């Protein structure tokens, strides 16, 4: 009898809460729905979903709303977490749970992989290797969305990658509780979090965004959304790397999002 292969990766803390990943899910459904609908057999993987399957179920619900044919697989290293998912999967056709890790034990290359709060415990080099490993397993048109958020999902940063590497970075926040954009720095992906220092692009971007936020302070009388939108517009007009407007337009900016090309934060390696 063949010996079972140990899943690749380490067990995460498992912290999760309902709606913790709502901001990323909302963005994913809006920006990747067309990709999922175009795939002949769309498959989405939620890698390292944590102690309970709730955020995988939420991802399934939100993706199915824009791509009804998508199948979703939750993958975890810890057997008890997999068992918790399997206990409820029968209620959701097209949803399943499996034990595994970065090797992605699925029957075909996924169209989309989400890995949130998974790489925080790894060092920077290991995080880069994980990006390479995961993107190599994607469908040729697929994407990896890797990021971090706080415990209740009010602040999040994620990177979208394809087989060629990172393409965009998204900053997302609950605006009424945000003091300044650089408060999102602790949520930077592991490939960037130690690069938030003088001389690195991500540090320059956050400093410029803080200045734009300060300039936009008079807009606070119209609410936090108006201030954020004005700050994004000022950043786009003044930041040296923002040669084109941030992705998504005002409709997405008003949701407390800012999506930029990866080149705006790419580190010196």
Folded structure, characterized:
The protein is α/β, with parallel strands linked by helices. The protein has 2 domains: 22-173, Rossmann fold; 197-261, no CATH class. Helices cover 32% and strands 19% of the residues. It has an 8-stranded mixed β-sheet, sandwiched between helices. Helix 5 crosses helix 6. The chain starts with 21 loop residues before the first helix and ends in an 8-residue tail after the last strand. 43% of the residues are buried. It comes from Actinomadura harenae. Keywords: Methyltransferase, Transferase. InterPro entries: SAM-dependent_MTases_sf (IPR029063). One of its GO terms (molecular function) is methyltransferase activity.
Please describe the biggest sheet, giving its number of strands, its sense, and whether it closes into a barrel. Answer: 8 strands, mixed
Low-confidence stretches: none
Rg from C-alpha positions?
19 Å
Helix content: 25-40%
First and last CA, distance: 45 Å
CATH fold assignment of the largest domain: Rossmann fold
Task: Please state roughly what percent of the residues sit in beta strands, choosing from under 5%, 5-15%, 15-25%, 25-35%, 35-45% or over 45%.
Answer: 15-25%
